[in-house]
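Office hours follow-up: a student asked to see two folded examples consecutively, so here they are.
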Amino acid sequence: MTVPTTTQAEAGKQFSSVHGGGASIASGKQFASVAAALHDLGDGASIAVGGFGLCGNPEACIRAIAARGVRGLTIVSNNCGNQGQGLAILLQQRQVARVVCSFVGGNPDLEQQMLAGEVAVELNPQGTLAERLRAGGAGIPAFYTPTGAGTVVAEGKDVREFAGRPCVLETALRPDFAIVRAARGDALGNLQFYRTARNFNPLAAMAGRVTIAEIDELVPVGALDPDEIHLPGIFVQRVVHVPEHADIIEFRTTRARPAAGP
C-alpha cells in the first residue's frame, strides 16, 4: 500500500514550537485526536501494533481504526488481541484479512477465523517476529537465524550453514503504519514506556513507515532526560495525547490475605 501524502493543513495538525538556544523548532507531529492522526489509513493497510496480550496496547488507536470501518487489514502483532479485547475488536468486525503473529492461544476470535479460512495467519517464533520488526526499523532487509531450522518454519525459505549451524533467512517487516502506546512522551515523539508495557512497542514503532504514538502523559520537549528516552522521536511521525485508558487485566489472580497474627 502507498501511504497518501497530505499537507499539514489537510491533516489538521497542531503545531508546537520549542524555543531553546535561540532556535525555534516546529515539530508538526502533534494531532488533536487519534482519528485525525489516522486520517490516511485505508483499506488494505498493513499495521504493526505494540503490546503483548493486552499489556501496552494502543487502545485509543485500535478503537479509532474500528470506527473507521476499514477492511482487508494486515496486522503485525504478538497475538492480535486477547479475551475479545484489544485487536480482537477488529477481528470481530471482520476488518482483518491477514495476521503476522507469534501466538494464537487465548484469542478465540483469531482461532475461529483462522480455522475457518477467513483470516490468513503467518506464525513466527516470538524472537524472530521481534527481530523482523527491529530489522525493518534499522534498514536491514533480511537476516539469518538458527531459530526454526529443521521445522515447518523453514519451509520455502533459504537455509544456510553458519558456524556449523543451519540458519533460516527471515525478511524484515516494514508495515505501512505502526500504532503504539507510551507512558510519557513529548511533541517531537521522544517516548518512554512503562515497565513491561514496553514489550513490542519500540520495535513496532521502528518498523512502521508512519508511526502514531498515543501518549499517557505529554511533557514539554526537554523534560525527558536523554537517558530516560526508550525510543527517539526520529521513529515517530505523529503523536496524540491520550490520558485515559481502560488498562484491562487479562487474568486477575488473587489470594486470600494471610490470617492476622496473635
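And the second, which I mentioned at the end of office hours:
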Amino acid sequence: MLDVLLLKFGRRGHDCAPIAGLAQFGLRDRQFSQDQDLTREGDRSANVMLLTEGLAARYKLLSSGRRQITTLLVPGDFLDLSSFLVPRRDFGVVAVTNCRTVVIEHEQLRRVCEANPAATHLLWTETSIEAAIQREWLVSMGRRSAKGQMAHLFCELMVRLAAVGRSEAAAFHLPLTQNELADVLGLSPVHVNRVLKELRHDGVIAWTNYWIEILDWSGLAEIAEFNPAYLGLESPVLARKNGSARAQDTAAATPAK
C-alpha cells in the first residue's frame, strides 16, 4: 500500500527503507466516492492519510459558500501530514475522483521516526516540498498572467504525475470541470475557457475528454516560466514528433530552465 509513496521518494533520490518500516503495522485502506469529503475543516484526528489512487483537493470555504482549491493531491501525496503536529485541520479535502487512501496512525509514525531518524528527514522533506508548491501557487495567483498560471499548473502536474507513473507518454488525466479549474486558479469559468482556447491556439496543449496532452513541452514551460526544482523531481523530456509530444527517458531528464 506504500508503493506509490516509495516510488516518489525514490525518484527524488532518497533511500526509502526508513519509511518502508510503516508496512509492519498492517495499515488500513479506505475508499471514497467522487465529491465525498475525506476530511473537513476543523476535524481532529489521530491519523494521517496517504492518497494511493485518484485525485483529491485541499480547499477552503468562505462564509458565502465560495470555494478556493489550495492544492491538488495526486497519488503518493499525504492529505494531512501537518496533523501529525497540529491535530486540528484548518482545511478540507474532497475527492475529485473516486479515491483510495492508506490510514497511518500518528502513533505508528511516531514509532517509525523514533526508531530511525532518517524517516523524520523524509517526512520533513515532504512537508518542505508541500510548502514550496504552495509558494509557487501563491506566485501564480499573484503575479503570473492567467495564461502563465494555467501553463504552470499543467507543467507541475505533468512532473508530479510522471514521477508516480500516473501519466501516459506526454498526457495525463485531469478530471476537472472548467468550474472546478476556476476554483483552482481563482478565475471565472469564462476566463478559464478563454485561456484554454489560447493555449490550444498556441499549439502547446490539447484537451480531450479530460486528458491533457502536452504538444510542445518547451513552449508550455516557457509560457509558465516553469522550473521544477521546487518539486525535488526532474522534468520529463518531451519532444515534439509528428505533431504531438512524446516522453523520452523520464528518469534521465534535465530540469527545464
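Two things to take away from it. The longest helix spans residues 117-143. DSSP finds eight helices and twelve strands in the chain.
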